[in-house]
Specification:
By secondary structure, this protein is an alpha/beta fold. The protein has one domain: Carbamate kinase (3-Layer(aba) Sandwich), CATH 3.40.1160.10. It has helices at residues 7-10, 19-33, 51-56, 61-85, 107-115, 133-143, 177-182, 190-198, 213-218; strands at residues 2-4, 40-43, 90-94, 103-104, 119-123, 149-153, 158-159, 171-172, 174-175, 203-207, 225-227.
Length: 228
């Protein structure tokens, strides 16, 4: 299960969807798909809309979260379009009902798509407010019996503090779920981390901008940080 933040799609603009970045991401995903790896993807919507930050500015949290879920569908359809230009058979499945753009999420159907070699993008979050796309990624990964969650971020792993703020921040090559929870490290939100811990589902955090990062992970090259 590949978890991508919405901000990655915005590039230097900070908002919206950059077609060139989306296409480059699609090329990286195609590389691992060609190795007969079943690929599921969950994308955030922060480049378009954030429910949490909008609720702080006066918008009610519930409609704000639903707008965020719709933003994830927009990102998913954009990535699907880029993947299909590269001749990758791709399906978007949504926890929200938008039949013109995406299939409704049905666990067995999603597994069947993966078994047929299709790339499946799980959009719409969990379909419920108050849950992040991190939690959606953990939930869908468990439901489809994924081997690992690969989280592509803007940094090259998990640090003891924000490396952009603290130059002395220490990077971890490997860390336990217990340590992540106790130290309150921002790998994924607490609900997602707890789900992964309870289901023994490892997480690999790496820099999505690295040229061969995804391939290195598939080829068992040490990269980023492994949480297990």
């Amino acid at each position: 299960m590949l978890k991508l933040s919405g901000e990655i799609f915005a590039g230097d603009n900070g908002y919206g969807i950059d077609p060139e970045i989306t296409y480059n991401l699609a090329k990286k995903i195609k590389q691992i798909s060609e190795k007969n790896i079943q690929v599921g993807i969950v994308i955030g919507g922060g480049n378009i809309f954030r429910g949490i930050s909008s609720s702080a500015k006066g918008l009610d949290r519930v409609p704000g979260d639903y707008l965020g879920m719709m933003a994830t569908i927009m990102n998913s359809v954009a990535l699907q379009s880029a993947l299909e230009k590269l001749c990758c058979d791709t399906r978007v499945m949504s926890a929200l009902s938008i039949t013109q753009l995406a299939e409704p999420y049905i666990r067995r159907k999603g597994i069947r798509h993966l078994e047929k070699g299709r790339i499946v993008i799980f959009s719409g979050g969990t379909g419920n407010p108050y849950f992040s796309t991190d939690t959606a990624a953990a939930l869908r990964a468990i439901e489809i019996n994924a081997d690992v969650i690969i989280k592509g971020t803007k940094v090259d792993g998990v640090y003891s503090a924000d490396p952009e703020i603290d130059p002395d921040a220490k990077k971890y090559d490997a860390i336990s779920f217990k340590e992540v929870i106790e130290r309150e490290l921002r790998v994924m939100d607490l609900t997602a981390i707890t789900l992964c811990k309870e289901n023994n589902l490892p997480i690999i955090v790496f820099d999505i901008k690295s040229k061969n990062g995804l391939l290195d992970i598939i080829n068992s090259v040490p990269i980023g940080t492994t949480v297990s």
